[in-house]
Amino acid sequence: MTTASGDPCDGDSLLLTDFYELAMLHAYIDHGMTGGASFELFVRKLPPGRNFLIAAGLEQALDFLEHARFTADDIAWLREHANLSDTALQALADFRFMGDVDALPEGTVFFAHEPLLRVTASLPVAQLLETRLINLVHFQTVVASKAARLVLAARGRPLVDFGLRRAHGAEAGLLAARASWLAGFAGTATALAARRFGIPVVGTMAHSFVQAHERESAAFVNFARSRPGNLVLLLDTYDTETAARKAVALAHGLSAEGIELAGVRLDSGDLEALSWRVRSILDAGGLTGTRIIASGGLDEESVAKLVEADTPIDSFGVGTSLTTSSDAPALDCAYKLVEYDGRPRRKRSPGKQTWPGRKQVFRLHGIDGRIAADRLTTADAREPGRPMLVPVMRGGHRLFPSPDLANIRRYAATQLASLPNPLRSLSRHATLTVEIAPELHRLAEEADRIGEG
């Protein structure tokens, strides 16, 4: 992957950080504060319109931890511009992550205050990782959570990611394709995402292809003969119903050539009304197996409306609202120190208080298999239910190979199926209230005494 200037992407560079991380690292090292520390990444509260979130981005976070380095050029730049001591610069030049990571598996449903990821390492090292870890985990979690709502709204009808062109940069477009497929989308229009992640790739035609021809029917025939496999024609460049009749008229001749019209796409107008009219035209022409694909400014609300109206739309392409998560583009996400030098630490700022200590989430399910309760407690607790955070890295090394993305997708589907019905709704309901164990209240009192000392 390259930047706009053609330079290699700097995603593994530890200079891809907020400068204050480097300033704090310098001060930690200068004052001998290099003991063991644990930081946890979590979401303080869910945004409006979100009854739950889906954890995503762990794979890229672990890749970053394995490969993050300061190059010789990075160190030279820091020496000239950052006013760091020689001791700090040497620590950066020698940087290798040798710590531990515990995390929610990708695809896990989670709620406010529950850690997605915990990093345990020396204080300067764990601190330095903050910015990029939030950057990687936050974005894919935002998109996966949006995609999950779309999947629930579609009620089994396939969805395809059309969002690269409106994504906020190349990395965002690629990772949005990954996060949406993980959450249940059926494919992507982004070719590089298909190559990199093994996601099924789809593509039809643009209006410009039709406009480039003198006659719409000529555009259809030329495209069909060049792209005979899984042929889908775009109908709304001029008049949708007229284009549908042209497609029917041409389909019989193309069939004689061994080319079948697999589908048609509607990209504008009243999709509900047009889908019924186009379905009628296709069926009358004997094309009962030709699918109708809808796109054009769709989000979960519009998809739900079309599904609830039982329209004959077979699948949906979703772009801008997915890759930008336009209704909730950011989460109140934080990476906070919870333990240092064996003692609990917490933040007490109004509205931003944190629970101290290394933590675990225990999840209880009802007899129907649905989530009944989550309990947040200490990492060493033993409680009823399933412990949700699992060890993924020890001493800087992964404990097991990365799971196949298709397996993560299947796991995410089981997680969505475990949601109680009110939380599956697109309407904002009271989200699951996470129970806080008494042990955390006691740790908070201990941490407060440290902070007041």
Keywords, separated by commas or semicolons:
17 helices; nicotinate phosphoribosyltransferase; elongated; TIM Barrel; single chain; glycosyltransferase; ligase; 453 residues; six-stranded parallel sheet; seven-stranded antiparallel sheet; alpha/beta; 2 domains; 40% helix
How would you describe this protein?
The chain has 2 domains: 19-143 and 330-452, nicotinate phosphoribosyltransferase, CATH 3.20.140.10; 150-323, TIM Barrel. The protein has helices at 19-30, 58-67, 72-81, 86-93, 123-128, 130-154, 170-182, 191-197, 207-211, 216-226, 240-256, 271-284, 300-308, 320-323, 405-417, 421-424, 438-452; strands at residues 36-43, 53-54, 100-103, 109-110, 117-122, 159-161, 187-188, 231-234, 261-266, 291-294, 315-318, 333-340, 343-344, 359-365, 371-378, 386-387, 390-394, 397-398, 435-436. By secondary structure, the protein is α/β, with parallel strands linked by helices. It has a 7-stranded antiparallel β-sheet. Strands 7-6-11-10-9-8 form a 6-stranded parallel β-sheet. A 4-stranded mixed β-sheet has the order 16-14-15-19. The protein is 40% helix and 18% strand. The model is unreliable at 1-8 (pLDDT under 50). Keywords: Glycosyltransferase, Ligase, Phosphoprotein, Pyridine nucleotide biosynthesis, Transferase. InterPro entries: Aldolase_TIM, N/Namide_PRibTrfase, NAPRTase_N, Nic_PRibTrfase-Fam, Nic_PRibTrfase_pncB, Nicotinate_pribotase-like_C. It catalyses: 5-phospho-alpha-D-ribose 1-diphosphate + nicotinate + ATP + H2O = nicotinate beta-D-ribonucleotide + ADP + phosphate + diphosphate.
